[in-house]
Amino acid sequence: QRIPNAMIEVLRHEKLRKLEPLLRTDMPHSMRGGRPNFLSDELIAETRIVETENVSANAYDQATIDLVERHKSGLVLDCGAGRRDVYYPNVVNFEIVAYDTTDVLGVGEALPFQDSSFDAVISLAVLEHVRDPIKCASEIARVLKPGGELLCATPFLQPLHGYPHHYFNMTSQGL
């Protein structure tokens, strides 16, 4: 059962109050629909983001829920969150699309957060969709606190799929 959008707005406001000191001030941004928007025209062009009516939405599995629960007093970044069916107060939903559950807009190759900001980072079925997965992975490592937890999954044998593009499938060694 989904939380009504009005309640998400209240929870997002509280989350963004905690997140504000962790946002990078050296990157151009604005507010879009009550959320920080780091999607500059240059980033949109460079990463080839296009408008879409498609919705990316997948539920968390038990391992992801357990990670979120372990860090309920801290902050978890869901990098490429899609539209989430559950809105967690400790999870920052980072996306290129302004879904109702998106907290911050931007791209993974240029995360708009200070170094060592998050207790944990989730990246599920995202790296195959970014133009530079190595740069995105480096950014994820940069914003993860030392000793923090990373839960990352990306496909190996997956047909062409998804929004906005599908660039790479990875072996376990590549990931």
Kindly describe this structure:
It is built from four helices and seven strands; from the N terminus they run αββααββββαβ. Helix 4 links the parallel strand 6 and strand 7 (144-153). With 175 residues, it is of the alpha/beta class. It has a five-stranded parallel β-sheet. It has a two-stranded antiparallel sheet with strand order 1-2. The model has no long low-confidence stretch (mean pLDDT 88).
Alpha-beta content class:
alpha/beta
Query: How many β-strand runs?
Result: 7
How much helix is in the residues? 10-25%
Query: Largest sheet, order of strands side by side?
Result: 5-4-3-6-7
Q: How much of the residues is beta strand, in percent? A: 15-25%
Secondary-structure element pattern, one letter each: HEEHHEEEEHE
Mean pLDDT, rounded to whole units?
88
Contiguous low-pLDDT stretches (5 residues minimum) are none
Taken from the alpha-carbon principal axes, the silhouette is globular
Q: Report the total helices.
A: 4
Main sheet properties: 5 strands, parallel
Quick summary of this structure?
Helix content is 24%, strand content 19%. It has helices at residues 5-19, 41-47, 62-70, 133-143; strands spanning 30-32, 35-37, 76-79, 91-95, 104-105, 118-124, 144-153.
Key descriptive features of the protein:
single chain; alpha/beta; five-stranded parallel β-sheet; 19% strand; 175 residues; two-stranded antiparallel sheet
